[in-house]
Design brief:
Blueprint lengths: L18 H10 L3 H13 L7 H13 L3 H13 L7 H13 L3 H13 L7 H13 L3 H11 L30 H7 L9 H8 L3 H13 L7 H13 L3 H13 L7 H13 L3 H13 L7 H13 L3 H12 L3
Length: 330
């Protein structure tokens, strides 16, 4: 059955704590990671209702703060008409900015636009240019397209021939066997008047939902001094307790290197667990990662698999994504 991420373990939400508002406040203060996380949450409907328009808006905020991933997301949305009318020319502008900011997914998406000529003037010269830019940044999908379409290899670009992975990608952070929320809270100056106290108690009583909310509290600095490391530990405990959104938080932290070393393989591992727990949003997230090939090796077959699983849970957007891949013959 489809999982309600807000009430998965039956915990009663803390009325005084709203992780979404915390992220929004941090984003408004110029905290880029909060903007990106909130964009992802709205895109996949994680812990809040899905809202593609807000997903695009928060990605745009990250872009305006000079974040290439945010610009790439907006380009992705505008190219496909997600959260706004389809606008290929505007999508191109955002992807150019993303690429200039060093985001390989933006370069690769832009290359695909020029290669297909859908919505913009087709240009194989521009396509090769942007595939090369993405490949130089170790984008697996771009390197594969560059070789198959233009016969240019990574070696031709004088790049390293080592496996396309970021340092430490196969190494998961070592965490304590048992994680006490009360100990972490005490280290952060927890007091009886803190609105998060009931969450601490619930987390120590093995409420995955409470641990997940504490992860957001530490991530956004709501009620505690901000701490990526403590946010990571709370997300880890939430996932260990089989709370699906905790696995998504943990996977996202590995994806972005928040409180731990960046690791595409660990991101995949915890997204897979969240999907197995029946959260269609996380299945869709993993399908998207396989489709773009930025953090893990691109695989249209795997993308279809996970979009298909989300579609089987009645997620219409995943059904459309699945159909789009099939229609493209990928």
């Amino acid at each position: 059955d489809q999982v309600d991420l807000k009430q998965q373990d039956g915990a009663v939400p803390n009325a005084d704590f709203d992780p979404t508002n915390g992220l929004a406040s941090q984003c408004d203060k110029g905290e880029v990671q909060s903007c990106l996380l909130l964009s992802n949450n709205y895109f996949y409907g994680m812990d809040i209702g899905q809202d593609l328009e807000k997903a695009r808006e928060y990605a745009d905020k990250a872009c305006q703060l000079g974040n290439g991933a945010g610009c790439a997301k907006v380009g992705f949305y505008l190219r496909r008409g997600l959260g706004a009318p389809m606008n290929p020319e505007e999508a191109k502008n955002y992807l150019i900015k993303a690429c200039e900011l060093g985001n390989s997914a933006g370069c690769n998406d832009l290359a695909e636009m020029y290669m297909s000529g859908l919505g913009i003037a087709q240009s194989k010269e521009e396509a090769q240019k942007y595939y090369e830019m993405a490949c130089r940044q170790k984008n697996v999908a771009a390197c594969r397209s560059l070789e198959s379409k233009f016969g240019v290899t990574e070696k031709d670009l004088e790049t390293a021939s080592t496996p396309v992975q970021q340092a430490g990608q196969n190494v998961e952070a070592v965490v304590p066997a048992t994680i006490s929320a009360s100990e972490l809270a005490a280290q952060s100056g927890e007091t009886a008047g803190n609105a998060n106290l009931s969450l601490v108690q619930a987390c120590d009583m093995d409420s995955g939902s409470a641990c997940s909310q504490l992860a957001n509290a530490f991530l956004t600095g709501t009620g505690y001094p901000q701490s990526d490391e403590k946010a990571f530990l709370m997300a880890k405990k939430a996932c260990d307790l089989n709370f699906a959104f905790g696995c998504y938080q943990l996977g996202h932290m590995y994806r972005e290197g928040i409180g731990t070393t960046k690791s595409g393989s660990s991101m995949k591992k915890f997204y897979e667990k969240g999907c197995r727990l029946g959260a269609y949003q996380i299945c869709a997230a993993l399908g998207h990662e396989y489709y773009i090939g930025e953090k893990i090796r691109m695989s249209y077959d795997e993308a279809k698999k996970y979009f298909g699983e989300a579609c089987d849970m009645d997620d219409e957007d995943s059904c459309k994504a699945y159909a789009d891949i099939v229609r493209q013959g990928k």
